[in-house]
Amino acid sequence: MAARIAAMLVATGALLAAAVATAQERVILERRSPYNTVTVTEDERGLRALWFSDGLARQSVIDPRDPDHLEAKYAQAVPFALALAARNERMLVVGLGGGVIPSFLHRRVPSMAIDAVELDPVVVDVARSHFGFRDDALLRAHVGDGRRFVEDARTRYDIVLLDAFGTDSVPYALATREFLESVRRAVAPGGVVVGNVWSRSRNPLYDAMLATYRAVFDEVWILELDGAVNRLVVAGTAKGAFAREQATRRAREIASRLQLRMDLGAMVERGFRPAGADGEGARVLVDADAPR
Prior knowledge:
Elements: H1 2-23, E1 26-32, E2 37-42, E3 48-51, E4 58-62, H2 73-77, H3 80-84, E5 90-94, H4 100-108, E6 113-118, H5 121-130, E7 139-143, H6 146-151, E8 157-162, H7 177-186, E9 187-198, H8 206-216, E10 219-224, E11 230-236, H9 244-257, H10 264-271, E12 272-274
Parallel strand pairs: 5-6, 5-8, 6-7, 8-9
Antiparallel strand pairs: 1-2, 2-3, 3-4, 9-11, 10-11, 10-12
Helix pairs in contact: 7-8, 9-10
């Protein structure tokens, strides 16, 4: 009971912090879309943020004066996927938001083809108008259903980043066994899948999500991030695909090669671990159980 109360207090504190942040920020754009109210704000530091309807979590953050600034801890950690994948030729991002991560990776690895798929056309418009997202021959935004895009994919990707959030969580349809099986089919040999999820304190389906990843992929690890409610679920299609020492070394090599500002090696050394008990005994999410 005490643990449950503590978790509730953590979640409540996070929501209150988000509400305070909202109060301190100036709204510079608000647009209604078929799915959300999309809001862009700027704070006293000049950081620009993208919010969806309830304003409980920032979807993307940029510093317009510094395109390479990555505010969110999970965004700072995503380049780790480059260290794990056998090749860095093609990447799929499900959930564009402000386009911060694909834009950053496109600048750092300009030879890699990146497809980003986003359900909400207003979000894509706002990414282009307020967050510096620019399509070109190798960086393309696709407006459409992310699940259908994956299911219909004819290309196999070295890296798949699942970063689609609604107002409060990952959409159920993007967390089921059937969807993750289609993701696995879209992954190239030696490829890696990275899912951005909220941890147990904010996500009542956390263990079910982990159980579902473990039911589909041969190797599932977690990257915990200091001071963040996000966790990155890292999945591979072969047993023994990951090892902490090798992953840490590769993360340091990637950070050096790409001249990253963050200490990616230290992040991995501290927070990269096998899934362990996460998801053990939890139900696997399936399409038939989708909320009505």
